[in-house]
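Quick question about two entries, pasted in order.
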Amino acid sequence: MAFLKKRGNKWYAAWYHNGKYIVKATGISIKGKKEEKLAQQAATAMEAAAKGNIQLSRALESVRAAAESLGMSESLPLIEDYFTNFSPASRDSNRSNYRRAVSLFLDFLGPMKIQKLDRLTPAMCRDFCVKRMQEVSFGTAKNNYALLKAALNQAVRDGILDRNPFCAFSIFSLAPSNIPRAIKRLPFSIEEMHTILTEFPVDWREIVFTSLITGGQRLGDICCLEWKHINLDQNIVMFNTQKTGKEIVVPIHPQLRNIIDAHANNGSEYLFPDAARKYIRWKGGMSVEFTTLLKAHNILRPEHVITTKAGRKISVKSFHSIRHTVVTLLRSSTLFTADITRGIVGHDSEEIERQYFTMSLDSKSVGLNYIFDVIQKGGEQ
């Protein structure tokens, strides 16, 4: 049976397993009889879970019940409880990514997750990030890191923690120099854009053109563009992106106005109701459909597909390439500054002082008209 040891001002659990002496921190302070009883309950549960004699969920429940009976439930909070109950205030897909990151992190911690939240150390968090980088791409590991870090930032703001252990290191400092930070997407050539806009099915032509002429906006934002986002009186399209919540305001190009007018009486809240229905049902399906069209028109070829360490196949040419195309065209021209490009596309500024830069609709119109003219002239050659 597990027994308690005193180290500093904390109780530690100790037991023997297969002849090995094991000591684990309970995270419970040495204060009085209540704390000692709870520490013993936690130690017993940790030993049982580690030896596989009881399910960890049942062990955790016994610790919670003991804390409540001792009137100490508010003094925990347990690592698992905090991360499981925390919900990021963002879009559904981000909450889904958060739940996935939490599940992976708690599995990594194992029995340690029944400790108090303040027992999380930078070493634990760092080891988790290193392990993730060995399993998946750097981008995925960075996303896990960012979501967990954000959750603990809130704990600091709420006064639950004094410091965030994920802030003790940078994910970039952990990645070996030979690991790519992200898979580089390729822009479409002018000829490829012309092929997409003339040879793809009409519904896809309209979706692609709408993305192109609003600054390379993402597939989900275009598929789910609602009529309430379109202000014909002010001649603007205005919405918040699904990925970051950033507000996008762009002028309506005459060609886009033609598309809008053609869908005016579709009886739906969405500009593209069929695309919205497909995307909401399964957002990956729209990406697969677009990728299939790229392959059919020889725009996406085998050499454009990269296999990650996790075995996932990623195309360097996809719908997101429209965004790269817009940035490439604008930055390749001497007519447009980096600020104007960021203003059109909707990227966050690189420096904090650039937050004071406000781009006019007239400037955006010049950039978007330039993109339209380049694509149109490229198709006429």
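Here is the second entry:
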Amino acid sequence: MTSMLRGMLLKDSLVGTRRLALWLLLTLYLVLWTGGVVQHFLIGQTPSGPNWIASLFLMLAALIVLITTASGSDFLRLVCIALAGLMVEALGVRAGLPFGAYSYTDVLQPQLFGVPLVMACAWMVLVAYLEQMARYLSLNAWAKVVLAALWMTAIDLVIDPLAAKTLGYWRWVDVGTYYGIPASNFAGWFIVSLLIFSLVRREWRENYWASAMGLSILLFFTLIALAHQLFLAGGIGLMLSLAHLLMRYRILPSTKGTSKTLLC
């Protein structure tokens, strides 16, 4: 009986610690999110040189997703996704495959093999986000894989014009018709995303915060695109955000039996 009571107290203590950590991370994340959006609307640019705040922003999003992932198998898959994303980016900057020839600047730090480590966080958060959104689709597993890959590519239509030009995170060697970005980039995003979603297509446990982090990043880049008058990219971001809300609040009622705890 005593050992059982100790176990319960330890479990409650761990949950309390995780909840406190979550709120601390969320507070800092919201401060950076709001500050970044306001800065671009009022000033129209970010400081030149290494931008540790940008890296911290994405790392916080990744930590929030990880700390709210209760399933051990889901946690392991998130780590594998982060490593896979880093490996794909390393291949990309060296061989130009599968996205096309590009290179990272020194803005995002720290870097490994010429790739900012925070890119692993970006891949992890976006994949986790779309896996959560796939839960609300009444489609077979492979249809969800294809749709998630298309959605991932559409998100890059919003992010890449800002990251490659306005924010200066990376530079393309070849010039394309979409804000100077080559079509090979989007083809590569679709292929890599298709492969990743195919490998992790087993049902994930519900995690509200993974969905929230993905939407917040999408809205962040959408608003910045509009601040810099990149209306096509911003318009795509608004449509994706609207699609998210429709899926969550029009399809979600059919799943009212699911629980939504603070730490899903």
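Reply: Confidence is low (pLDDT under 50) at residues 252-264. The radius of gyration is 19 Å. Hope that helps.
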